[in-house]
């Protein structure tokens, strides 16, 4: 069946890269007999705390500076992450793993926003960043550009780490960051 | 006031508000309150024995890996991806071939093709054995390739955030920017691909290149005609520019035997499974030496069709994404290792049937597969 105008034409390829990344010293225990990682609860709580700033910024990048939505996404991420902890297989992948879960949660919230309340009617609850002009310029970029850019520059993640978190190829990450910088430059100069 | 993009990027965190305390509190409450439930798997003598053998094999592989890096090492840093034994055997049996190109020697050490994936590894080092630095991009930092990059930085005695340019300056070493790309023409099924290096224990480079092939085009072939495209340039660490006349490009034709489909099976859901109006109708599986390729087909009901057809690009993508988020699980509850392709694809050209294709790493086709989606499970036999 032809679907004119749709952007999904023919096979679309996603490349999923899962790489080892930096993480706090972990009390992971690799149990070769069970072939699952027994994720220690204390470590989980510590790691969530250590990455809370990054999680908040990722949530802001996708959801804007509405603290209620960011809080909901982060809360739900913590619960889902613990529930899905068996999918974290190796020490050192916590950050990209948790960011991937958060990105999905943020998108769920965006979807429910669309279903429940028109965007323009959302209550104006937001917190101000130190550089509001930079925030606005960043938010004016499409999410697919601003999120990789933010992960590289605000979180110091490498192309490989970003590719792992966003399920993209490294080439796609490089390309998106390049486009994001071009657009951000235009926005800041406008 | 004119803004400076580079400075803005350096201070990008200034674009974000400080996290409100209640946000942090809510996150930590949720993290602490998440239910502790331990899944304990029964341990039998057989599994203990198998596990012990696996540990010994892994240690042996790790020791061997200090000599030469291969795809097993490459995938070891990925999310549970393993190289099936049959693929390892073929990779390790590859007849090595060396090419001296300018100041460097490229040794193609591993080749493998199953009609859908073609892979190569190439060892890169100076022809005269003199020390040098090899980079994937001169502006990259040493630590940018995860653990392998950090170990390189440690060996060189430099901080992880040192760029290759700075490292070459500080260590007074020649800096090479090499590439060994496995190139497959479109007519022979070539398409997208990926490539990435790792650094060996002696700071030389192993270059990994993988091409994704069109199985319709490789179906009639027993050998894949391909070429390795070698490129070198030497970079001046002071200027970051290519040293004049240092760039060399050389193409070498190779042939890779194709190890095609070993077995095929159509799995059927043991019970009806529908998500958001899409019913899982079948899963077609094809086993090769590289692993098991799975193609799951979902058929939309009338309501789902209306929603999809009315959806704009982004919303249609959301629908796809929800159906795509599945995990393949074994009967014992453990997830299957991710396939070596590290990739998947969807296809809506037969809509209202949507196809999702991915891969798991197994040596033989399992009798039963379990698909976990959206906190639900469906068993396929």
Structure description:
The complex is a heterodimer of chains A (190) and B (381). With 190 residues, chain A is mainly alpha-helical. Chain A folds into two domains: 27-127, Rna Polymerase Sigma Factor, Chain: A (Orthogonal Bundle), CATH 1.10.1740; 129-190, Arc Repressor Mutant, subunit A. Helices cover 57% and strands 5% of the residues of chain A. Chain A contains eight helices and three strands, in the order E-E-E-H-H-H-H-H-H-H-H. In chain A, strands 2-3 form a two-stranded antiparallel ribbon. In chain A, helix 2 packs across helix 3 (67-83) and helix 4 (94-116) crosses helix 7 (159-166). The longest helix of chain A is centred in the middle third of the chain and has 23 residues, at 94-116. Chain A is globular and about 50 Å long. With 381 residues, chain B is of the alpha+beta class. Chain B has two domains: 85-257, Immunoglobulin-like, CATH 2.60.40; 263-380, Immunoglobulin-like, CATH 2.60.40. Chain B has helices at 5-10, 21-33, 45-65, 71-76, 85-92, 146-156, 164-171, 215-218, 302-310, 313-324; strands spanning 97-101, 104-113, 117-126, 133-134, 175-176, 179-183, 193-199, 205-212, 223-232, 234-235, 248-257, 263-267, 274-275, 278-288, 291-300, 326-329, 343-347, 353-360, 369-373, 376-380. In chain B, a hairpin with a 2-residue loop joins strand 13 (274-275) and strand 14. The chains are: A mainly alpha (190), B alpha+beta (381). Strand 1 of chain A pairs antiparallel with strand 17 (343-347) of chain B, so a sheet runs across the interface.
């Amino acid at each position: 069946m032809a679907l004119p105008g749709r952007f999904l034409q023919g096979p679309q390829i996603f490349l999923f890269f899962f790489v080892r990344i930096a993480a706090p010293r972990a009390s992971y225990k690799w149990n070769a007999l069970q072939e699952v990682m027994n994720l220690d609860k204390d470590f989980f709580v510590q790691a969530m705390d250590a990455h809370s700033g990054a999680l908040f910024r990722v949530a802001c990048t996708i959801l804007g500076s509405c603290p209620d939505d960011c809080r909901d996404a982060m809360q739900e991420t913590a619960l889902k992450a613990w529930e899905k902890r068996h999918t974290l297989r190796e020490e050192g992948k916590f950050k990209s793993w948790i960011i991937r879960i958060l990105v999905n949660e943020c998108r769920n919230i965006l979807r429910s926003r669309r279903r429940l309340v028109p965007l323009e009617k959302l209550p104006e609850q937001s917190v101000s960043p130190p550089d509001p002009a930079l925030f606005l310029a960043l938010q004016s970029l499409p999410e697919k550009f601003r999120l990789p850019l933010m992960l590289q520059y605000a979180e110091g993640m490498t192309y490989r780490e970003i590719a792992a978190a966003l399920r993209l190829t490294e080439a796609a990450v490089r390309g998106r960051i390049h486009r994001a910088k071009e657009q951000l430059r235009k926005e800041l100069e406008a | 006031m004119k803004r400076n993009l580079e400075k803005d990027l350096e201070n990008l965190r200034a674009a974000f508000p400080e996290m409100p305390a209640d946000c942090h509190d809510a996150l930590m409450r949720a993290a602490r309150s998440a239910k502790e439930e331990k899944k304990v798997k029964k341990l039998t003598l057989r599994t203990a024995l198998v596990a012990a053998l696996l540990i010994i094999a892994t240690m042996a592989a790790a020791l061997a890996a200090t000599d030469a890096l291969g795809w097993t090492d490459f995938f070891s840093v990925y999310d549970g991806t393993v190289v099936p034994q049959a693929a390892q055997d073929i990779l390790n049996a590859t007849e090595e071939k060396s090419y001296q190109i300018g100041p460097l020697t490229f040794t193609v050490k591993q080749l493998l093709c199953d009609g859908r994936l073609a892979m190569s590894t190439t060892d890169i080092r100076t022809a005269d054995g003199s020390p040098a630095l090899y980079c994937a991009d001169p502006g990259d930092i040493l630590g940018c390739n995860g653990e392998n990059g950090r170990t390189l930085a440690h060996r060189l005695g430099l901080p992880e955030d040192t760029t290759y340019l700075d490292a070459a300056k500080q260590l007074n070493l020649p800096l090479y920017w090499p590439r060994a790309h496995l190139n497959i023409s479109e007519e022979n099924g070539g398409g997208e691909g990926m490539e990435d290096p790792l650094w060996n224990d002696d700071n030389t480079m192993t270059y990994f290149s993988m091409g994704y092939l069109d199985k319709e085009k490789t179906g009639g072939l027993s050998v894949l005609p391909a070429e390795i495209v070698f490129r070198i340039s030497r970079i001046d660490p002071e200027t970051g520019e290519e040293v004049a006349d240092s760039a060399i490009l050389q193409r070498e034709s190779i042939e890779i035997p194709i190890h095609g489909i070993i077995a095929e099976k159509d799995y059927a859901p043991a019970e009806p499974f529908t998500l958001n109006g899409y019913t899982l109708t079948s899963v077609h599986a094809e086993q090769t030496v590289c692993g098991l390729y799975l193609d799951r087909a979902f058929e939309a009901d009338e309501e789902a069709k209306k929603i999809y057809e009315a959806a704009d690009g982004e919303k249609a993508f959301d629908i796809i994404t929800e159906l795509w988020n599945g995990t393949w699980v074994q009967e014992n509850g453990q997830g299957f290792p991710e396939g070596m392709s590290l990739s998947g694809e969807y296809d809506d050209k037969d809509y209202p049937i949507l196809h999702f294709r991915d891969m798991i790493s197994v040596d033989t086709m399992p009798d039963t597969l379990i698909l976990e989606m959206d906190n639900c499970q469906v068993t396929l036999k």
